[in-house]
Design goal:
Layout (H helix, E strand, L loop, with lengths): L6 H8 L2 H5 L16 E4 L11 E4 L4 E4 L5 E2 L1 H9 L3 H12 L8 H27 L6 H9 L4 H6 L3 E3 L5 H8 L4 H6 L3 E2 L8 E2 L4 E7 L5 E8 L8 E3 L15 H9 L5 E2 L3 H9 L5 E2 L8 H10 L4 E4 L3 H14 L10 E4 L6 H8 L1 H9 L2 E2 H10 L7 H16 L4 H19 L1 H4 L37 H17 L8 H4 L7 H12 L4 H12 L6 H7 L2 H21 L2 H8 L6 H18 L6 H21 L9
Parallel strand pairs: 11-12, 11-13, 13-14
Antiparallel strand pairs: 1-2, 2-3, 3-4, 5-8, 6-7, 8-9, 9-10, 14-15
Helix pairs in contact: 3-4, 13-16, 14-15, 16-17, 17-18, 20-22, 20-24, 20-25, 22-23, 25-27, 25-28, 27-28
Keywords: DNA replication, DNA-binding, DNA-directed RNA polymerase, Magnesium, Metal-binding, Nucleotidyltransferase, Primosome, Transcription, Transferase, Zinc, Zinc-finger
Family: Belongs to the DnaG primase family.
EC number: 2.7.7.101
Length: about 650
Amino acid sequence: MSLPPGFLDEIRNRVPISRVIGKKVVWDLRKSNQARGDWWAPCPFHQEKSASFHCDDQKGYYYCFGCQAKGDAIGFLRDHDGMEFIEAVKLLAAEAGLTMPEPDPRAREKTDRRTKLLEVTEAASRWFRLQLQTGAAAAARDYLTRRGLDGPALERFEIGFAPDSRSALTSALREKGFAEDQIVEAGMSARPEGGGAAYDRFRGRIVFPIRDGQNRCIGFGGRAMDPEARAKYLNSPETPLFDKGRNLYNLGPARAAVAKGARLIVAEGYMDVIALVRAGFEGAVAPLGTAITEEQLRLMWRVAPEPVIALDGDAAGQRAAQRLIDLALPLTGPGQALRFVVLPGGQDPDDLIKAAGPGAMSALLDQACPLLDLLWSRETQGQVFDSPERRAALDRRLAEAVARIPDEVTRKHYAEDIRRKQWALFSPARQRPGGAYQKGGAAPGKGRRPGNGPPARALVPFVSPHMPEQGKDLLEGAALLICALRPAMVAQAESRLERLQPQDPDRAALLHDLLTQGDSPAGRRGLETLRRDSHLGLTPAIIERKDDEAAVVMLLDLLDKLEVARATTHEVPRAETEIQGEADEGLTWRISQIARARHRAENPEMETSGDMNEDRDAMAAQLSDWLSDQIWRKPPRR
């Protein structure tokens, strides 16, 4: 239907948008400025307690700072109430006191036709419900009773029964004055390919009415009572009213529940939704017998920014989850996310609620995982990444998946989380048992040294503090390699590792990756170079044989040697040669402290556990400060 120019503007001028939206929300009068037409409220499109939903009467638009929902009054009625465009215009025109322009004859005919088809489906719904009370429906009633559906549940969900008769419904609708063409077009009957009288589409089935967001009956779903039926579930065909890829079962009631704070839960079937709603999860919906479509995803996001997809734990549920990953990635972003719950042991929500109660379902929903976790599981589960080629193939698959995300910020966060997961998957600590500290033992660096085997320091190359630069590079490389082999130890020496300043770019990248849990190409090159270093050839094997406590002691001893070596190789000799004239007691004391630290680094076995370990961090920081301040330089005489 075409509208004359300026008609919509006239509606907007006459009806403030706050009047339309104010019927669905409670304004926060402390935050709102009524005189200026500036209104705030909790968002009706997603669950929140704070007032982040803004409505501006002067501009005629609304915007939610939480889920990014936005639009004008017509858009609000379409997104929130599920109205068609013309229906929203008619409602606002009536509110404004305007007469709708006369539609052209073809548009009027189309509207009248839809209205008549809706009358057919509503009449069919009433007839199905009456049939559930007949003797022919005894088996159907027994089945529903076994599934736990009592009288109020049958009434609430308008469940009915289609008798196993070729034309009972068609005849009943004819008696009510509907033409056979209308009955067929509404999807209630079908004609034989070879011609002849129409026959009922639903026969011998429990029938579930399907209603749109405005509570209009647009179609039906039927469950067969005959276990030998070709299709267990049968939906209405595509009609002017019904498009199974664009609607959801229980949409209207779920949207109202979500607006009051409920979670939007997407189950697999009608019975799952009914079980969830009866257990108190009133924001439950389901697709209509098909895999979730893009249109259904967008419809879900208009109701809530983060629906929870509750999948059966069987193979079919797993396949549905895998398909949904590829569908959702090109659409996901701020305000358009998904979380997933996979039910245990092949159960569906109805089974779980009956077996363990609503609390068990609620606990699973609280633990719902994001889309990223499902993607990672799909690409890694059941696979072995024991070669560079396999790891490269994983990198490529994940990169291609992330590249499909349109929002740049979301894409960045996906990439960061994937790098962390890759680090955890490929790190040696993950690939071998025994990653935690032994119970009953002191934390590394805070108590006794390992009691079994030779001292940890003897397992790494000895390098004197009076060493050339190549020796300090060896200590630095050994420390980085130990951290790469045992990433969990990085936190134990993080502050000291941060003070390392590798001159080699690849080593610097590796250090950055260790501190940030990153995974850069340069860092991987640095690690491979260290692994190939002939001077460090025994280090990986040594580290793998040691427990965590011994490995941390080795690392700390290396850092001790490295810091003392850098403080003494050049600075102390220069300080000694420059001391002339008046004695500088402060400098003398500092030199003595460096000498003490050097002695400890060279002979850690001579120190008690409560001596060296407790103050080694302070000593390391002090050495670093002295180097920064160039302590060997004598202050000028005055």
